[in-house]
Structure formats: structure tokens, C-alpha cells
């Protein structure tokens, strides 16, 4: 009689162990989620800085030629307009993603918010990289010019303009690197559990 | 007596249900892995096509001017050189990633190869997007020129060259879209299980 009573008790114990199994006390997941939040703040700063620096880049030369007065602003180049709009959109997305990052801190084991973040991060990483790289191509041309197409370097005239746009491009690539890190962190948190 | 015997049996049933729970017969995961493999083949084709089209873009105009003979090739533009090298690297990575994709088909529930693929895919997505976007910026300039910096459009002279480079850029963006899809698919497969 005692053996038949012992059996169910040991079974109940096993069942409990199995139920508890998947819910490890993953403190490192909370740490990862907090790091995600901090990195996101850094990416917001970099993206906003890039958009603002590029948006305020403007230089009018203090002399006239026989042709016209020289003025350069981000409006002059389609790639720079695209850059300002895109980096503003990326910064806006990153601000809106902060609540989801907070949900991931509160519930470190929920896969939903992490999946949502990794997918949208990938899309906006592509957007940020595209705008940063196209602006970088124009900045490179402005610095070096191109012999074969007879495009002359404009940075000896527009030094301040070139410095501002170069800074904006560097800031954009900081945001890109942080977004790549965010995706890698989210993937690791999704994969190991 | 009969009631006390029924109790343990129902407990055993519950315990089994819990143990079986996490190991679903995830046939959709195998399907996702096969789709990953096929998309990867498409991305290889797009990346190789982009690198080859850009690498073979070359046009010499059949007339001289008083200055020099006009010739345009991908060598003329740093962004295009970067494009050829980068797309070749991305295509090489995608070929090397095929074995890992096959491992993911054979073992659909293993997180390791999927994590490896999602992290490297993100890095090479960034590389492919950067090269595609910088080449796109130059192609746009070649088509439209720029008033403020006095860069003239060269596509009326170099029509074939512009068509080839534009095609290469489009092909690069096909590869970028496929890489984004690959990352989203991998993230979904990692997250839902």
C-alpha cells in the first residue's frame, strides 16, 4: 500500500521539475535587455545628431564671381536631402522602440517584443546604412572630385560645408554600428534559452 | 480503492504531456530552412550579377576632343570599385553560408547554425547596402548632374556605361532585399518554438 502511494508523489515531483525547466532564472537576459535599452539611447543620439548636423549644413561664400554667388547647403544634393529625412525617420523609430525595449527588460523571457524589435531594427538598419553610404559617396566626391567625369572637388571652396557633412556621415555610421550590435544582441537573446 | 489507482495514472498522463510539449514536430521549421536555402541561392545570383555587371562596365567614346579621349569604366569611380569588391565578398560569403543553411535543414531545431547565420547575414547586409547605396548616389549624379557644384551629367555621353552601372545597382538592391528577408525568416524561426 505504501509503494502505490509513493509512486504518484515521485511522478508529481518529476512533472514539476519539467514545468520549471524552461523558466531558468536568466538574469543575463535582463542584463542584455538593459544593454539593449542603453545602446538604443546611444543610437538615438547618433541618428538625431546626424540629421541635425546635415540639416543645418549651409555655407555661403563671401564673394561673387561673374556667374553667380556660391552657396552650398544640404538642399543642393539629393543624397543629402535623403540623408536628413532618413536619419530623422530612423531616430523617430528608435524613440518609438524604447517602450518595447522596456517591455523586454520587465519580461526578459518573452520572445514577442524581441522578435518585433529585431525585425524592425533590420529594416531601419538598411535605411540608415543606405542614407549614410550615399551621403558618404557624395562627401568623398566633394573632397576628391573625379577626373574622368570632370567633376571638380568643391571642398577647397566650401570647407565648412564639407566638414559639417562629413561629421554627419560619421555620426550616421555610429548609429549603423549600434543598430548592428542591437540586432546581434537580440539574436543571441532569442537563440540561447 | 479504484479512485486511488486512477489518481496516479492521470498524473503520469499530465507529466508526459508536459515533457512532449516543447518538442513539437515543427515541420514548418524545415520548410523555413528550405526557403532560407532557396533565397540564399537567389541572393548569390543577384550579388554575383551585380559585381560582374559593374566590373565589366566600360565604354570608350568613338571620338576625341581637344582635351583627351573619353573613357569611362568602373575604375573611374571609387564608389564603383568599392561596389565590385564588396559585392564579390558578399557573394563569396553567401556561397560559404550554404553549408550552414543545409545544416539548418537537416536539424531544424538547432539554434546554433541559425544564430551564426543571422549574425553574419546582418554584417554582410550592412556591407551590401552600403556599397549599393554609394554606387546609387554616383549613378544618380551621372544621370542628373548637380547644379550647385557644377557637376555635369555624363549619361548623355556615356549611355551604355550608365545603363550597365544602373543595372548593377538594381541587382545589388535585390540582394539587399533578399538578405533582409533571410534575417527576418531566421529571427522568426529562432523566436517561435
From TrEMBL, chains A, B:
InterPro entries: CASP/CASPL, CASP_dom, CASPL
Annotated compartments: Cell membrane
GO aspect biological process, one term: cell wall organization
Topological category with respect to the lipid bilayer: Multi-pass membrane protein
Alphabetized UniProt keyword annotations: Cell membrane, Cell wall biogenesis/degradation, Membrane, Transmembrane, Transmembrane helix
Domain Casparian strip membrane protein: 30-178
Any one Gene Ontology cellular component term annotated for this protein: plasma membrane
Transmembrane regions listed in the UniProt entry: 37-57, 77-103, 115-142, 168-190
Subunit record text: Homodimer and heterodimers.
Role played: Regulates membrane-cell wall junctions and localized cell wall deposition. Required for establishment of the Casparian strip membrane domain (CSD) and the subsequent formation of Casparian strips, a cell wall modification of the root endodermis that determines an apoplastic barrier between the intraorganismal apoplasm and the extraorganismal apoplasm and prevents lateral diffusion.
Family: Belongs to the Casparian strip membrane proteins (CASP) family.
Name of the featured protein: CASP-like protein
Provenance organism: Clitoria ternatea (Butterfly pea)
Amino acid at each position: 500500500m505504501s509503494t502505490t502511494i509513493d509512486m504518484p508523489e515521485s511522478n508529481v515531483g518529476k512533472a514539476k521539475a519539467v514545468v520549471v525547466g524552461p523558466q531558468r532564472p536568466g538574469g543575463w537576459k535582463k542584463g542584455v535587455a538593459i544593454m539593449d535599452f542603453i545602446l538604443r539611447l546611444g543610437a538615438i543620439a547618433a541618428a538625431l545628431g546626424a540629421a541635425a548636423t546635415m540639416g543645418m549644413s549651409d555655407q555661403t561664400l563671401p564673394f561673387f564671381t561673374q556667374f553667380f554667388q556660391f552657396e552650398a547647403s544640404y538642399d543642393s544634393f539629393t543624397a543629402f536631402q535623403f540623408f536628413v529625412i532618413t536619419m530623422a525617420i530612423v531616430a523617430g523609430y528608435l524613440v518609438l522602440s524604447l517602450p518595447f525595449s522596456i517591455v523586454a527588460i520587465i519580461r526578459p523571457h518573452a520572445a514577442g517584443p524581441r522578435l518585433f524589435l529585431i525585425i524592425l531594427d533590420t529594416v531601419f538598419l538598411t535605411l540608415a546604412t543606405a542614407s549614410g553610404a550615399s551621403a558618404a559617396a557624395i562627401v568623398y566626391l566633394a573632397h576628391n572630385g573625379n577626373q574622368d567625369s570632370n567633376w571638380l572637388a568643391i571642398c577647397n571652396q566650401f570647407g565648412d560645408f564639407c566638414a559639417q557633412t562629413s561629421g554627419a556621415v560619421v555620426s550616421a555610421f555610429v548609429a549603423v554600428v549600434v543598430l548592428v550590435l542591437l540586432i546581434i544582441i537580440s539574436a543571441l537573446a532569442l537563440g540561447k534559452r
